[in-house]
Amino acid sequence: MSNAFTVAALISAGRHPVSGAPRACRGDAVAMALGRRMAGDGLRVVHAGAAEEPSLQDYLALGAGTIEALPLDSSGDAVATLAAHLKNVDIILTGSNAESGAGSGLLPYALARALARPVAGNVLDARVQKTAGEGWDVEIRQFLPKGQRRRIGCALPLVIAVHPRAPVQLKYAYARRLSGRIERFPETPTDTCVAQPVWTVETASRRPIRLKARETKSGHARMQAAVVAEAKGGIVAFEGSTVDKAQVMLNYLREHRLVDF
Amino acid sequence: MSDVKRINPRRPYRMSPTGLRRIVLGEIASADPHIGVTAHETQQAKPLRTREPAKRWHMAVAHSERGRLDDHAREAIAAASILATPDTGVVAVILGELHENAGELGADKIVVVPDLDATRFQPQREEAVVQVLLDEFVPAHVFMPDNLRGDGDLGRRLIAKDNAFAATHVIELDARHVSVSWSGGAEIAKAPLPRFVLLAPGVVDAKLPFAGAGELLPAPKLPGVTEAYRDLGLEPTEAADIALEEADFIVSAGNGVENVETLGTLARTLGAAIGASRVAVDEGKFSRDKQIGASGKSVNATTYFAIGISGAVQHLQGIKGCRHVIAINRDGGAPIVKRADLTVIGDAEELMQALITRVSQARNQGEVPRSKDE
Predict the structure, then answer these.
(1) How far is CA B49 from CA B143, B148, B253, in A?
(2) Judgement on whether residues A174 and A225 belong to the same structural domain of the protein
(3) InterPro entries from the entry (chain A) (predicted)?
(4) Which residue segment(s) compose the domain that A230 sits in?
């Protein structure tokens, strides 16, 4: 399948949240599968990090083919390295969150900023069409909560962060794991130097504490608050005909703007 | 005379909705049985958080939903005001219409931009409008809910533009630090409080003992931005097709529902998904994937109709995330009454029929609902 547009999927080192065992990050694997559907064999799979990373083997088994491994320099700035490497790629696919580290979901946005192109998040599906001119155009299906889906159109180039629930099938094949290749790239020095405060990481031994406003209340007020909270309950409609009661329910729905009629 | 302190057996009390006699010390109350029911109406106005003029600002940015703020958005505003010192003001930027008083949520100044509601996709205009406000107030910290309704997206765009250290999906914060979960939740990472903080749900208690000044500011002019994206609109979704976990409006049936067809009609009339309690599923009235509760699904609907459901603990566990619970039940003492925001006592079949008639009337006639702003 020959395309006039190029697609790249970014993959990261996945870790099992409990055992810490290396594995393919599901979000990235889904993005890779979506890229495979869009570009066929033309898909480039890129990993910013060491080529020796054990989880890359899982991506090969899931059909990565050839993985381009870009070693990071001492600053560890993946965004600058990736931006330099993917300048000419039209569609860059990423997962929503990485499994190792903070998993902040910021990379697609930072990368789009660095390359000065639009970015779409929580994407379930993307289809590339030819426009009336010679350009290409992407139609995106975006995930929204409460069962809603949105369609967005956008011109190339573009960065797409794929939602983990994108409807693709992941198939693991050991033969592909053996036949796949990891291509090592030389380290490219980046000139950016952003001083990032370092996270202090510790094992999560306790539950996070909820932020609460400090209250200076008298004992009586606290007691009363406890009693009132205990007596929680809503309005109870005992009386009236069924029609009246139906009206009560409709009024409630309207009052809280739960219906639009 | 003995030393034993004597207690007046006829001292004032109030009746709780469960029919228990409650003695509230220090209160001169009547034995009026309805006081306990409408207890929240007796609350007095909260004091202002601060009276000092603001020297610095905290900002909270959130989308509204149908003119109201959801809990997650309220938490962001609450975080901004809890962490504010007396000389710090709180600006709430609400994208979309707002029909409630954000001052009660802790905001001192409110900017409502009705044209930027969450149903439309216009990230570049949103970014531009918020940037104007960021330049105007220069807030020390910006708090946003990290959700999929557009706030998480907008926050990440602003962070990328700012190109500074920021924290997303924050699970714990105080005046100096934020914590995020690390490596998928096995570890926790701490850092100094950054400028942009995207909060995970449930991190802040939105109940505040104080209120903000709540001054409404005029919305900034929408800058003429040409969007790189074309919004092709929301897909029309059939409510019945939506997975129960994602549904916004659920009509759920229990043992008290005899006629499943009526329930189906009601669900279609209201545009709701159908759920069921364990008893109804066990009887074979509904398929197993409709079951809500401990051994079924947990739902997060905004509106949940519990019809003929008594409200066993296991069922209540499944509807923990629902905001408005409306119950129809024959028994006024059922546990669901305590959970429900509105309970209608009566026969399920008759009430369902009446509601179907009333709602379809209202829909067909295009009645203009009474505007009742809270």
Answers:
(1) 18, 31, 45
(2) no
(3) Rossmann-like_a/b/a_fold (IPR014729)
(4) 219-255
Residue of A nearest to B356 (CA): A246
**Residue B88: CATH number of its domain:** 3.40.50.620
Whether residue B120 lies within 8 A of chain A, CB to CB, comes out as no
Q: Do both B34 and B64 map to the same domain? A: no
Q: What CATH number does the domain containing A153 carry?
A: 3.40.50.620
Radius of gyration of chain A (CA): 25
Cα–Cα distance between A152 and A173 in angstroms, integer?
34
3-state class of B312 per DSSP? coil
Residue B39 annotated as binding?
Answer: no
Mean pLDDT of all residues in A222-236: 68
Residues A25 and A134 in one domain: yes
Query: What is the C-alpha separation between B367 and A254, in angstroms, rounded?
Result: 11
Residues of chain A contacting residue B27, judged by C-beta atoms under 8 Å apart: 224
Q: What distance in Å separates residue A255's CA from the closest CA in chain B?
A: 6
Q: Which residue of A has its CA nearest to B351?
A: A242
Q: Does A167 touch chain B (CB under 8 A)?
A: no
Query: Which of A252-256, B243-247, B310-314, B368-372 comes out lowest in average pLDDT?
Result: B368-372
Which percentage of chain B shows pLDDT scores above 70? 92
Domain count, chain B: 3
ipTM score of complex: 0.87
Q: Does B132 touch chain A (CB under 8 A)?
A: no
The span from the CA of B154 to the CA of B61, in Å, is 9
